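Q: What structure does this chain adopt?
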Amino acid sequence: MENNIAVGLDIGTTKIVAMIGRKNEYGKVEILGIGKSKSLGVHRGVVNNITQTIQSIQLAVQEAETAAGTKIEGVTVGIAGQHIRSLQHSDYITRANSELVIDEEDIDRLINQVHKLVMLPGEEIIHVLPQEYKVDGQAEIKEPIGMYGGRLEANFHVVVGQVSSIRNVGRCIQSAGLNLEGVTLEPLASSNAVLSQEEKEAGVALIDIGGGTTDLAIFRDGIIRHTAVIPFGGNVITEDIKEGCSIIEKQAELLKIKFGSAWPGENKDNEIVSIPGLRGREPKEITLKNLSKIIHARVVEIVEQVYVEIKNYGHEEQKKKLIAGIVLTGGGAQLKHLKQLVEYITGMDTRVGFPNEHLAGNSDDEITSPLFATAVGLVMDGLKRNERKKAEVVEEESDVLEEETEETTEEIETKPPVKERRSFLDKLTERVKDFLDNAE
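A:
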């Protein structure tokens, strides 16, 4: 596999998507191939049947390989699911020598301290995201590196998930004959694909409505402030239609996509859809008004749960106001009149987010659908990771060169190497890899 290519693998409850992409000369992401398969063995974002999930992954990967004409070796995968929760935590360290300026190591020490938090059994910290720092009690510091101070404290947004679920995902990928190159939180991936930098600065809530779960990510001042996973998605709507109209799931899904609306007032009483009955039975007649009432009831429930999370973040405070409102994405965002309903419930500006923010201009319409927001975000994440790796290789080579030249001229002052802080996800990826290697 070429170095400048990355593969995103979105393991969802309804579908598994493998997407191959690379950066073009304008720095935009060009999608070379996409493969999708029906997801069997995943429930509410959590793998519950390893064998079926492996088969679905292989199908999606083969389709993407055929489309792109290239072989897939490593993938960047997203983590979501009902086991993800987040909490706010503040912590501090006292520095031994306040005469020296604060450096990367102090921040790493502080972050590592947060990792020692006691979690529920089976839970592990996935992400530690610093919000803002305080140095000697001086608050609202965005970047403390280079400052003087004895006590360094910070507020953190800590994302927690179940280790076993994450390991199962790793297991599926490995058994499907792929390398696990990176692990990312799905709400983060979707937001990279859909949101503009201005929105993240102004304050925005991204709601990603998937099949099994609805993910929420809130940004303000360019920093992620809150994440949550709500264990409902488009599938419960289909389920309700199936129960409410006594029809089979396939028909319910089609009804939802073709005629569904989140706003019952839109439909006239005399609009009727006829559905073929099961073998030898009469066809069923369903009024669109009833259909949209069923959908409306469930969507209101989902949106209200998300709104509770937005309130928990505290968006009513002046300092935490979300000026850019709400962005809806994911397959569920394609439901008719959903935007109006969300605006009505939350009173916040709403738009539907398409993942075309960073895609090359000639991308297929299919790819820029909200359905593929997470997959596009994962590809972007993989490309970033490749660039970092390249930079590290270059740095190592230059270090070797430096050492060789130092031997000849020892008088040259040595500069301390600038080490880039590794994101916790890189460490998590390594831990999952180690676990898999040792588990054989």
